[in-house]
Amino acid sequence: MMPAKQAFEALALSLVGQPISYIWRGYGSAIFIEIGELTPRLNRDGSVGHPEGEVSLGVEWSWRIENTHAIVCGSWSDDDLWEPALSCLRDARVERCEALGYLPEVVLTTVEGFRFLTFSTTDGQPQWHIVDRRDGDARWFSVRDGQLHLGDGTEPAF
């Protein structure tokens, strides 16, 4: 298997030009960004759930959306700012995806000039994951022990 950093770089390159197809909110300030073709999902009770993208970015907390001049919205912003800010990302195309910092955080930049950034502000590890469902078994990227980690999604969360 390819080292996590190298696999992440390959994933990042493969996202260039892909559409942000769907964005949804989880509990609290959790955000999920679905990239590429969507697949319908059902909840455990049989009701219609949120669709899954070919690639998903999930952030438990601490994120922001910025343009070239200012922070448009963040996880601590008033709820009434969230939907307009998230709509700036919907249907946008990915220009770049990066993992930056000593403790890697994700930066997703769109062709339209917006950036979505994760940045954990609590102790422990950054609280994000990327799932790549293309080409067979899902690959899960996250941070463990301060390093990019590549797994299959069965590892316990921290």
Describe this structure in words.
The protein has 158 residues and is α+β, with helices and mostly antiparallel strands. The chain contains 2 helices and 11 strands; from the N terminus they run αβββββαββββββ. Strands 1-2-3-9-10-11 form a 6-stranded antiparallel β-sheet, with helices on one face. The longest helix has 12 residues.
N-to-C SSE series? HEEEEEHEEEEEE
- Which percent band covers the strand fraction? 35-45%
Span of the ends, CA to CA = 23 Å
Which value, in Å, is the CA radius of gyration? 15 Å
Task: Identify the strand order in the major beta sheet.
Answer: 1-2-3-9-10-11
Count the DSSP helices.
2
Counting DSSP E segments of at least 2 residues, the number of strands comes to: 11
Average pLDDT number: 95
Describe the global form: globular
Q: In this structure, how is the largest beta sheet organized?
A: 6 strands, antiparallel
Structural class: alpha+beta
Low-confidence stretches: none
Helix content: 10-25%
Write the layout of secondary structure elements.
Layout (H helix, E strand, L loop, with lengths): L3 H12 L4 E6 L5 E5 L19 E5 L3 E4 L4 E4 L4 H11 L4 E7 L4 E6 L4 E4 L9 E5 L6 E6 L2 E5 L7
Antiparallel strand pairs: 1-2, 2-3, 3-9, 4-5, 4-8, 6-7, 7-8, 9-10, 10-11
What are the main properties of this structure?
158 residues; alpha+beta; 5-stranded antiparallel sheet; 2 helices; 15% helix; globular
In short:
By secondary structure, the protein is of the alpha+beta class. It has two helices and eleven strands, in the order αβββββαββββββ.
